[in-house]
Amino acid sequence: MGCCRRNFNTDEFKAWLSTLHEEQPGTEFCIKEDDQKETYNYLKDNLFGQIVVWNNSVVEEIITDRTNNEQIFYLHYEMEDRNQIKELIKSFKRRMFCVCQKEYEVSEDDGERNILLCCSSGLTTAMFAQMLQDFSNNNHLPYHFSATSIYDDDTLSKEYDLVLMAPQVQHYTKSMAAKYHKRFLIMNPVDFAQYNCNNIVSRVQEVFL
């Protein structure tokens, strides 16, 4: 991790954040700073987007619908992998500036699937795993979702049909697949950030059906 951070140009990253709103007519932009963080604010139509860069190298991406004050997009991650961060910021930009995401269709399936969600701590994915479980139950799909940390060797060593990786830890996928000899799938950042159960389950079905 340390090597990645040393190679990461924080000033270059912040300069890029200051240009995300360009070529987006009608977007208001400002930066707010305090002792702990810098917050890049984007306001367009009814959406209020924030990218928060903390001094401890943690980044938060937040989009709120101003019509009902509902948070509709959230990601957090550490500044570790340059290519991964570019993809995560591009996902924020696509959602913030209303580029339509494809909605997939869920199919019938009577095969039982044990599916494990992974992120850095397991806390974010634990909530999402329960949402996916509820969605599967409501759609009469015999899928079983659970969640854990990428560091939980005991859980990862158990039998699972598929491991879903949170986008903020996707750079661990190759090494984990080699270690645990399981099928891995990286969740789409926009679907993950919006807890889009329909699209995640549909992508899971592409693996099996």
From TrEMBL:
Q: What is this protein called?
A: PTS EIIB type-3 domain-containing protein
Q: Which UniProt keywords apply?
A: Kinase, Phosphoprotein, Phosphotransferase system, Sugar transport, Transferase, Transport
Recall the GO molecular function terms of this protein's record. Answer: kinase activity; protein-N(PI)-phosphohistidine-sugar phosphotransferase activity
Q: Which organism is it from?
A: Thomasclavelia ramosa
Which parts of the sequence belong to the PTS EIIB type-3 domain?
A: 112-209
Q: Which SUPFAM superfamilies match?
A: PTS system IIB component-like
> Coiled coil located at which positions?
none
What InterPro entries is this protein classified in? PTS_EIIB-like_sf (IPR036095), PTS_EIIB_2/3 (IPR003501), PTS_EIIB_3 (IPR013012), PTS_sugar-specific_EIIB (IPR051819)
Biological process (GO), any one: phosphoenolpyruvate-dependent sugar phosphotransferase system
Residues the record lists as Phosphocysteine modifications: C119
Q: Does the keyword Membrane apply?
A: no
Reply yes or no: does the keyword Zinc apply: no
